[in-house]
Amino acid sequence: MVPATKLSRLLLYKADASPPSCAVRMLGDILGLHFDFKEPKLLAMEHKTSEFKKLNPMATIPVLQDGDFVVSESHAIMQYLVGEYGGEMGKSLYPRQPRARALVDQCMYFDAAVMFHSVKAVALPTLLHGKKGPTSEDTVNIDECYAVLEAYLERNNYVATDQLTIADLSLSTTTAATQIMHKLDNNRFPRTTDWLARMSEETSFKKVAVPGLALLKKMLHARWERN
């Protein structure tokens, strides 16, 4: 059991429609953590202020403040939370065995460097610069990400191992976001379709990701209609 004094120190800067923020909050729900929240107004560029950059020089969300310790980037935040507060549950969510952990890291880095970039390539120009919708290049890039997930899922029940890990939390929120832009083809990517359906039944996904991604969908479709 995590001491209440520790739980009360967790401050998360987040946005409900942000897939990485959703992934961190899903992990918090699984671990029974309590967060206090601050929500910078991203469209007003509050995350670009000098004050916010003192917390996170990358000027991105989410950012976690645990007492006098600050860490940004959702994957790093999740790794920290599992290590600091995960207890026995953390052993499966982020395995300690080097090879299993390397496979989880591999999937996390794929999400950070490749798959989430495919979301940003559509979402940011839509919300900030009047993009009218996903282009053919965008859909090709998203399909390439689906192909990687399909290959990972040929080997395991989940993306990294045969158990749910933090990699599934990150990639499921990202994949749910890409559904708004370019839906999975069940015939081409049956394992990925099945995995996302299973993730969608997770309690934490229903509580956090479903309303968060519904908000993102509403925002994007409103802008596409206006643009």
UniProtKB/TrEMBL annotation:
One of its GO terms (biological process) is glutathione metabolic process. Pfam families: GST_C, GST_N. Homodimer. Gene3D superfamilies: 1.20.1050.10, Glutaredoxin (3.40.30.10). Belongs to the GST superfamily. GO terms for molecular function: glutathione transferase activity. Residues 8-89 form the GST N-terminal domain. Residues 97-227 form the GST C-terminal domain. This is Glutathione transferase.
